[in-house]
Fold this sequence. Notes:
Belongs to the 4-toluene sulfonate uptake permease (TSUP) (TC 2.A.102) family. By secondary structure, this protein is mostly helical. Helices cover 79% and strands 0% of the residues. It has helices at 2-18, 26-33, 38-56, 60-65, 68-90, 94-114, 126-144, 149-160, 164-185, 195-215, 221-248. Helix 2 (26-33) crosses helix 3 (38-56). It is globular, with a radius of gyration of 17 Å.
Amino acid sequence: MLLAIVFGVVIGLSTGLLGAGGSILAVPALVYGVGQPLSTAVPTALVVVAASAIGGLCSRSRLRLVQWPVALIFGIAGIPGTIGGAALGRSLPQDWLMLGFAALMVVVASRMFRGNDRAGAPDGDLVPKTAAAGAGVGVLTGLFGVGGGFVIVPALTLLLGLTAQQAIANSMVVITINSISGLIAHSGAVAQLDLAVLVAFAGTAMLVSIAAARLAGRLPANTVRRAFAWAVLAIAAGVGISSVIGLAA
């Protein structure tokens, strides 16, 4: 329970401040910290991810930045991918999935070290590009229980020319849509959820995300991003080693 609250703080901070990165810690926290099987950890993580995204979106300033047509296209395009990713995840052994998750964590950390991409000039065919990016993020959400903000934020800045703050706000809408559709895809595991852990984890993440969103303009974003990136790398190493040992056993 204590670990669930601690990781809820970490995920809420990262989502509220950066719009990305925190949800990648939810599944390892639940599997290795709380001791849940992956089949339970993924839907639990999806609730936590949705709660932290909604919390980060609660401020009026963030809501004014949302480009609703963009966010909805991105999010709705991810729904089929989320369902497909969930089905694929159920067919793979847990050690292989966690090994893939460790690789994904390394990718996330590398993106966080580089920081947000600068806004680019929007070009043609934005709807197909946005839909394709949304579908890819949906697969990751269904497969691993992550929000995908580390993909959504740079995609919105590079493809659509949004500023970093606009991309973060839109990312939270997309993360919420993907997480809810992922939870529906994992509905068969809902009865197995530990409600006490879920409430402690998700509630903490949401409250901290609300507070962090209000502090986002006052803290050095690069320093915060790098600190989270190092944490993600350290956990990725542990997850990778544990998965390799499990596969070799």
